[in-house]
Specification:
The chain is α+β, with helices and mostly antiparallel strands. It folds into two domains: 10-48; 62-212, Glucose Permease (Domain IIA) (Distorted Sandwich), CATH 2.70.70. It contains three helices and 14 strands. It has helices spanning 13-28, 32-48, 127-130, and strands at residues 62-64, 69-78, 85-93, 100-102, 107-115, 133-139, 145-152, 159-161, 168-169, 174-178, 182-187, 192-194, 201-202, 208-212. The strands form three sheets. It has an eight-stranded antiparallel sheet with strand order 9-5-6-7-11-3-2-13, with no helix packed on it. α1 runs antiparallel to α2 (32-48). The longest helix has 17 residues, at 32-48. The chain is elongated and about 70 Å long.
Amino acid sequence: MRAPSIPLTPEGWPLIGLTVVVTVVFALLGWGLLAVLGLVGLVLTVNFFRDPERFVPCEPGLAVAPADGRVVKVGPAKDPLTGQERQVVCIFMNIFDVHVNRAPVAGLVTALRYWPGKFINASLDKASEDNERLAMQLTDEGGATWTVVQIAGLLARRIVPWAEMGDSLARGQRYGMIRFGSRLDVYLPNDYHSNVTIGQRVTAGQTVIAVRQPE
């Protein structure tokens, strides 16, 4: 599995470089307004592709947020890979959030499935069924399965996966990103209960979103 560089994702460098060149050309030609707009675009592009380090909790029995953003749903839903009804935590990322996605738990990638689809607002529930998406199944050390779904949003036009079948991921490890506004749905095993509320802001790799219940 390929790991991105820090503090910017490799996917961002071509667009950042292009924006720099365009801005410099505008400035050299004396096109002040366009140069300023290019500079604003550069700042926004660097902001979008940033990839800061995170302090991942190491305590057992925890799951962390796979994405930065706002929790838009906590409740029962049908797992797209297994067809079972599970507790799901849905996180909406706006264009200003970090868009690098991280594994909620340590586990082995045991399934990947892609669906083409629409690009409606990812904050809406129907985005989980209608939008372009990529589901990854993680099997943790206890044999429980987790389904993490990357969903393209209104402005998103590309899901970028880094994890492959058979990869072993650590909790909080980077495994992909989605460009320009999107959503992550996490389907929990039955012995885990959600630890967040609707409207709560979460941080990928750091915020605990679920806790394993004692037997």
